[in-house]
Backbone:
């Protein structure tokens, strides 16, 4: 008997059955709990780091358990297969749940990374022709020309976005492959793209196809051929003089003042000079302003010589903001532009002390206000403030207030010692919002303005527990229910707990409603355990995060009355397939009203599980 019991209790099969009744997550899968939930996976997520070591150890042997236990991992695993180009993993996933039933964004990931073998597999098994345009666009955008050719040969239609990239940087034979199948709009867009990238040969090929002749010889031809209106503008903007010259002869209609304006912005002096000599459109004040902002001194000088009336104080302000001292000097001393408050404010904002001193000595008398020093203080530029102070500039209490907002303690100390403008309660309130504890302590000790309840409320909202504790211990203003509300909405549970144990203001229903809306499951669980009385469930107006699978699962299991009768419709409208599956598993009906969704997998799921009768509203 003992040997039989021992054999039973040590049986791997029995242990496996016992484990299925245990609550929790397998140890090897615990790290996956922190990965994002939702149908769409961000490109910033490094799935190789997150999943690579796990697949190296387990391959696909535990994939069923992973996807069953953590359903939010389905799109992440699929994204990993697409980014790495793992054909075996794609085949396994297709056999388990069908790749045609999931969001097809993984196909664009395959295209972006150039995994042509996987693309060919998908073409043969689960490709949805509704996504071809996006697949071709992503492949062309990332110069994955073999993928572009492979997909296009299977689906030879007009694709404006993809063809634009093919024309601008693709091989000539691919352009010729696409060209017979493109409509006029796609060809015009492609010509503009090719012109912008300096691809003269592509422009010429497209021109022949667009116009039906190599040259426009009659005015009537020119008027009828209205495609690619921005071709010359785009070529000029990027400095492609040879393309501009060719277009001038063969397609002279595609030019506006934007050509010279943006050529000036990018410093293409030869293009600007050629346009000035051979075209009549000219330019606008934007040409000078953008050239000054970009630091093109020679361009600014040339434009002043030929278009003096277009030089304005806006050009001076832009040059000051970017710190282009030579251009500023030229505009002030040669052009004779007046130094107004706009220029001084720009210099003060960016902390250019030498620029402030130069402009300050040349400003128009009685044209500046306290705004100049206030802005310098707000940005923490102490040397600039000291310079302005020595030049006799005025300031206001906004200087110290805004310096405190930015956490500039040294600035606050200097203003306190050298100016009499003072501050307001906004100083401590805003410093609390930013978590600047040392500055708050100094204001508390050396200033008398104090603060308002906004101080603790905003500190709690932003999760600054030490500031909340200091204000609680040393200030009398206190807080409002907005403190705990904000902390809960921001998922600052440690702040929520401190306020719960040490303050009496409590919270409102907005605390749990906001935490739910933002998907903070841990905070919602704690609030349900400790502050549920503050939440009038019968009057709840909760905005559910249908894309957050973890929160939706929690609500369905713990607060099911908060999930509305039309939750499935809301999830469908948002395109959240995994949430639709979850709701369906909990008995929510999928009601068919003939609507077609943007995602084909959603349409397939609805087709398989829809009901033809409307549910009774609860």
Residues:
């Amino acid at each position: 008997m003992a040997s039989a019991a021992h054999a039973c209790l040590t049986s791997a099969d029995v242990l496996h059955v016992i484990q299925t009744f245990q609550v929790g997550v397998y140890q090897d899968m615990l790290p996956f709990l922190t990965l994002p939930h939702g149908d769409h996976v961000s490109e910033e997520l490094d799935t190789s780091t997150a999943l690579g070591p796990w697949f190296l150890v387990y391959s696909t042997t535990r994939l069923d358990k992973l996807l069953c236990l953590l359903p939010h991992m389905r799109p992440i695993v699929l994204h990993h297969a697409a980014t790495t180009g793992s054909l075996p993993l794609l085949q396994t996933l297709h056999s388990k749940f069908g790749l045609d039933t999931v969001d097809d964004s993984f196909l664009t990931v395959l295209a972006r990374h150039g995994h042509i073998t996987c693309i060919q597999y998908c073409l043969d098994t689960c490709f949805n022709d509704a996504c071809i345009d996006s697949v071709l666009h992503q492949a062309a955008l990332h110069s994955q020309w073999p993928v572009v050719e492979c997909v296009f040969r299977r689906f030879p239609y007009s694709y404006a976005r993809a063809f634009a990239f093919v024309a601008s940087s693709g091989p000539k034979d691919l352009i010729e492959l696409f060209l017979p199948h493109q409509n006029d709009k796609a060809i015009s867009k492609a010509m503009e793209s090719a012109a912008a990238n300096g691809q003269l040969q592509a422009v010429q090929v497209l021109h022949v196809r667009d116009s039906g002749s190599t040259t426009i010889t009659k005015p009537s031809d020119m008027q009828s051929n209205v495609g690619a209106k921005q071709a010359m503008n785009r070529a000029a903007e990027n400095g492609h003089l040879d393309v501009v010259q060719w277009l001038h002869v063969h397609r002279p209609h595609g030019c506006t003042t934007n050509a010279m304006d943006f050529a000036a912005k990018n410093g293409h002096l030869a293009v600007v000079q050629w346009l000035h000599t051979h075209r009549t459109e000219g330019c606008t004040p934007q040409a000078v302003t953008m050239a000054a902002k970009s630091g093109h001194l020679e361009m600014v000088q040339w434009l002043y010589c030929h278009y003096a009336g277009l030089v304005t104080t806006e050009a001076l302000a832009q040059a000051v903001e970017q710190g282009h001292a030579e251009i500023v000097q030229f505009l002030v001393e040669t052009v004779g532009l007046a130094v107004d408050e706009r220029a001084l404010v720009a210099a003060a904002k960016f902390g250019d002390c030498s620029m402030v001193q130069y402009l300050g000595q040349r400003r128009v008398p009685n044209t500046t206000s306290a705004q100049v020093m206030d802005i310098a203080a707000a940005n923490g530029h102490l040397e600039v403030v000291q310079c302005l102070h020595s030049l006799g500039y005025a300031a206001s209490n906004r200087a110290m207030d805004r310096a405190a907002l930015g956490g500039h303690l040294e600035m606050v100390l200097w203003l306190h010692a050298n100016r009499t403008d003072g501050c307001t309660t906004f100083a401590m309130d805003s410093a609390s919002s930013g978590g600047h504890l040392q500055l708050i302590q100094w204001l508390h000790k050396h200033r008398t303005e104090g603060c308002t309840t906004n101080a603790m409320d905003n500190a709690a909202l932003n999760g600054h527990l030490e500031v909340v504790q200091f204000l609680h211990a040393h200030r009398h203003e206190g807080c409002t229910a907005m403190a705990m509300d904000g902390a809960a909405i921001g998922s600052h549970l440690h702040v929520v707990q401190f306020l719960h144990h040490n303050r009496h203001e409590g919270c409102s229903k907005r605390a749990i409603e906001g935490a739910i809306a933002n998907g903070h499951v841990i905070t919602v669980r704690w609030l349900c355990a400790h502050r549920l009385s503050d939440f009038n469930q019968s009057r709840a107006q909760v905005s559910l995060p249908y894309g957050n699978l973890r929160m939706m699962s929690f609500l369905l299991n713990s607060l099911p009355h908060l999930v509305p009768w039309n939750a499935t419709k809301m999830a469908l409208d948002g395109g959240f397939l995994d949430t639709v599956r979850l709701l369906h598993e909990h008995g929510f009906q999928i009601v068919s009203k003939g609507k077609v969704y943007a995602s084909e997998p959603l349409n397939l799921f609805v087709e398989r599980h829809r009901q033809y009768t409307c549910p009774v509203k609860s």
Observations:
- Strands lie at 590-591, 610-611.
